[in-house]
Structure formats: structure tokens, C-alpha cells
Specification:
Length: about 290
Amino acid sequence: MIVDIHTHVFRPEIDFGANLLDDLNRCGVNPAEWGDVGQRHLETTKAADVAVVFGLQAFQTGWNISNDMVAQHVAKASDRLLFFTSIDPTQPNYMQELERSHQDLRAVGVKMAPLYQNIHPTDERCLELYRYCVKHGLPILFHAGTSFISGTYLDYSRPVHFDAVAVKFPDLRMVLAHLGHPWEGETIAVIRRHANVYADISALYYRPWQFYNSMRLLMEYGAQGKVLFGSDFPFTTTGDSISNVRNLNDVLGNSGLPRISDEIIENIIHRDTLNLLGLNHPAPNGQ
């Protein structure tokens, strides 16, 4: 079974603030190129058996994606989509939103992005959220590593800070997105020492040399079993991500450098992500 742990849905014309649009423009990204994100998400995520879906609430950087909208989207393919709510701990009603999303909207996990939300992952407001997630068995997927956004502290996204979270909350299931690039070494150091901390490889194949070296480092530390498959739709698609992960050795050419084995690659693509994160298959009789 293939699980895409990392997919977004949003409506740029409604959900993006002026500062986010400015950042996208500065980086040469035109949201219109993504087309109808919701419809394309329903079509392209069929390349996986299950996909985790979230928006992002990060008011500091202009992400204003409604959890209700994401939950409604998931309901359109409830046999294969799982809803993760996004919570911004800098907002005064963040715990109420977490409880509402979990109890009323049936969220099965949480998406957080300290860099986007401009909050340190060990801030007391975050700790309150983690306590709720541990109590109710909700995994958290964190954005980790760099981003194109401006005006916030990059340090808040350093993978090493999630080590302190894992020490305080050893039962909290966590996923560090994007292998924390460009600090993959930090991410590997964190995931290999905590039983319930994982990383995903979403949006890494764009930089094939860095991706290859990251995979070699994972192997040298024996941590490849702690890595999950993810795409980062709509910045890419599930199918394109699967193909390009399988082709990661193409960067080697005739260099003679050691290949990443097909077994390791396929194990990541087919990892039992639902079981590792304590999630049920969305279909009543799903396998």
C-alpha cells in the first residue's frame, strides 16, 4: 500500500494573504499554474492508496486555509483521504480550534509549521497542543527545514528543536517534513533516537544531488526505516514523486558512486505509514 503523507489543498484567490502572494511573486511562483487545486488533488492522489490532506493556518505569513474547507474536500473521497487539521498556536482560540477540528470535523492528525507561524516549537502554547495530541492519539506533521517565506525566524524550523519536543513527549507521534532540508543530518540524528519520530521525503527530488546524498546518509546511520513517502502536492504530484524517487540514482550517471538499492526505495514508497502513526485506513474495510 502507498500512503502519501504530505498533500495540501487550498484556494489561492481566497486563502492567500498579501504577504504570501508577495513572497510567491518574489520567488517566481504563479499560483495560477496549479489550476483547480482541489480537483487536481482528487485526480492525482489516486496514484496512492491513501493520502493525508491538510491546509495551513499561519496568519503571520498569510496562510489562511479553512479547516472546514479541507474537511469538506476530504469528504469527497473519504475512502482514501485522511484529514489533518492545521492549528496556529499564535491565535487566541487555537485550542478551541483543535478541539473543534478533532471532535466535530473528525481530524485524525495535526499539521503545524513553526517557521510559518513564527513560534518556537517548544513554546508553552505548543506544549499545550502536544498534550492534547498525546491524550487523543493524534500524530503531528511538522514543516521542518527551509522555505521561501520571509519575515519569520528560520531557526524555528531547525530539526534539532524537535528533539526537545520528543524528549518531553515520547509518546507523541511526529513527522518532520522534507527531511528537514537543508539540515538532513540534524533530522536523521533526531529520528533515529526517538521511537515515535519520523521524517518524510516530500519535495526532495527537485534537488537530485542533495536527495541522493541524504539517502546515503540515512543508510550510513541505518535510519532509512524511519522515512515515509510524501509528495507535497500541488508543488508536485503523487505520481511524479513516486517516479522521481524511483529514479533517484539517475543523478549518478557513470560516476561509479554507490547506488541506493531498489529495496530501500520501494520500502519507503510502500512503508506502513498508517500503522506507524496509529492511523486507521479511511475506508471501513480498508487494507
